């Protein structure tokens, strides 16, 4: 039986089975990126959010990176925690079933695709990893 420990419920590291970190490598990397970028958002006093959120008028002006970066930013701590919990619940299973490369490809493709759909259907600014996580399901 594998014992899991973590940081604030977001990052989990398998401790009793050899290679358990490797079996959830991309899940842990994505969780760490989300947490670190949230800390950077707070430290930047909102400037990071302005630089990376899905804002249609700015995407129309050529800022296409927002279709990716918006998936790694979060509106508030509760938003981050729900997405970390969801990714931590679904990610390791998908990563083990599909392998790390396919897991990352599915996550990244889902992130961009969900941002693109949001761009076409919704004028409101948007952030969050929900679309990428739903793609894993």
UniProtKB/TrEMBL annotation:
Positions in coiled-coil regions: none
InterPro entries recorded: Peptidase_S54_rhomboid_dom, Rhomboid-like_sf, Rhomboid_protease_S54
Pfam families: Rhomboid
Keyword Transmembrane: yes
Membrane topology: Multi-pass membrane protein
Main location: membrane
PANTHER family xref list: RHOMBOID PROTEASE, RHOMBOID-LIKE PROTEIN 10, CHLOROPLASTIC
Official protein name in the record: Peptidase S54 rhomboid domain-containing protein
Organism for this UniProt entry: Nepenthes gracilis
Lineage, opening ranks: Eukaryota, Viridiplantae, Streptophyta, Embryophyta, Tracheophyta
